[in-house]
Amino acid sequence: MARKGQGVPLDFVAGLFIFLVMLAYFLVLWDSYSGRYLEHASSIDMETTAIGIADQLVSTGGSPSNWTAAPLSAQSIGLAWRQNELDPYRLSALASLPYANAKQILGAGREIAIKIETLDGGRLATVGNEPASSSKAVEVTRVAMMNGSAVFVKVQTYE
Amino acid sequence: MSEKRKAMQGFVFSIDATLSAFLLVLILATTVLLSAQATGDPYGDLQIARSGKDVLLALDRQGMLGVGNATAIGSALNATLPQGLSAHLSVSTYYYANGTFNLLGMAEYGDATPEGKSIWGASRNFVGLRNGQVANYSTARMWIWQE
User: Fold this and answer.
1) What chain A residue is nearest to B78 in terms of C-alpha separation?
2) How far apart (Å, rounded) are the C-alpha atoms in residues A87 and A58?
3) Which of A42, A115, B8, B84 could disulfide-link to A154, CB 3.0 to 4.6 Å?
4) What pLDDT does B65 receive?
5) Is B42 within 8 Å of chain A by CB?
């Protein structure tokens, strides 16, 4: 009977030891990965924002269709008069908007910079300020046409 | 303790051990899976695929696809591709006669497709006109990948 009684606490101690080892393992993992998860989620959020804005600019003409007449009253901004064909008038209207208004109408919850460049890097238009080299930024590049030439539409989001 | 009781005790212990080992493997696998997901870029693939469609559309609108000049197309392709991407382009041209499409020629441009890399594809159909009439039908296929 005495030997049987000793067997139960040994099982318990072994089980408790394994449980504590696993708990410690998870605490270490949690500490290690939670920061990385948050950083990754933030990057994904920035990327989806940039992808959405770039797609909206090269695929839609904005709403209402004549939003260039009163850019501050635009419900949404788009630069295309047809798929991947940018309208210079729409581009001028976007560039003329104050940054805060452009950001709000584009629905960006973060800082943004939009650059329209020729293939050899010549700048055609800029909206917003480029991120500082130290800030975390995501850039999405789309290729579109404007006045018969290919251009890069670069959208950056940053913190 | 009888031999029968000893055997039964051993059996109970092995079920416990198997269940514990199963749970341990499950937890470790979940941990590895979650940590792998934390480092992936789910939208990177989408962007490469979209770049392929964009570049093909731009080349078509510039009238480059039907030119057939390897130097001009190669140069336009390199200039139009966003930084960090490479592509291979294949243009197949057909003529239509007696109710069927017949292959007239196939031209290849750009870099050779690499081995062991993820490659995305895009395609675009266009027609060649001569004196306002459709002279031939072409399909441009692009394979695009991250350098």
Assistant:
1) A119
2) 10
3) A115
4) 85
5) yes
